[in-house]
Amino acid sequence: MTARSQRRPAATLAGLLAALVLAGGCAVGGPEQDEPGRPRPEQPRASAPSGAEDDRADGTTSVAEFAKDFEVAVDKAELYWAEQFRASGRRFEPIRQVIPYQREGEVSCGGQPVPRNNAVYCSAGDFIAYDVRWSVAAFRQVGDAFLYYLLGHEYAHGVQVRLGVRYDFTIQQELQADCMAGAYLGGSVQARQLELAEGDLDEFREGLLAVGDDPDQPWFAEGAHGTAEQRTDFFFRGYESGLSACGLG
Fold first, then answer.
1. What number of other Cβ atoms are within 10 A of residue 127's Cβ?
2. I need a surface site. Which of 8, 31, 45, 173 has the fewest CB within 10 A?
3. How far is residue 13's CA from residue 186's CA, in Å, rounded to a whole number?
4. Which domain range does residue 69 map to?
């Protein structure tokens, strides 16, 4: 994806090293909820490979490109949600901080260490934390569009907290966040803040396949996010129809 215009966002990218040694692997779970409104982190089932032979043909391979795209993703999420809040007569407060990390326990949320190979929104500190090695590996394997989805999903959790949205089951919270991420990206494309490149929609689908729950996971299980099919469905509902498809707006 490419941005039509850019401003420098408030996201923190300190600690992003120029020479990363990629570490693949599946996440093993996230911290328990320490307060209402703090959703679970992403729990991808597919590991991202390392090695240049697995890089995609779209050229999204360098750490510098990753850093640039991540800044743009944060910027456009802030612009999108500020406009949505403004349109409804509310004041929007951007998420306080976006924190890259490389080791389990380097970042804590409510006293719980954030695990490796993950991304999470923490309402206790109002920040998004992401494993930079895992994120760069996914960026190289899937493409830059998935990075915008990943940031959009976690940012949506921050918006849920700001709106006081809290469901009985984790899966409801997560699928709504997928829908909201789709609405942010679709709305940004319509507003000409972002421009789709060839293959971006396929990258969204490919990335959603990687983060779906096991089909045998009970939908009511604590920490459930939804199957790949469910997550793809909700994402594209938002992408095509906006926030009204997410129970908002």
1. 19
2. 8
3. 25
4. 2-246
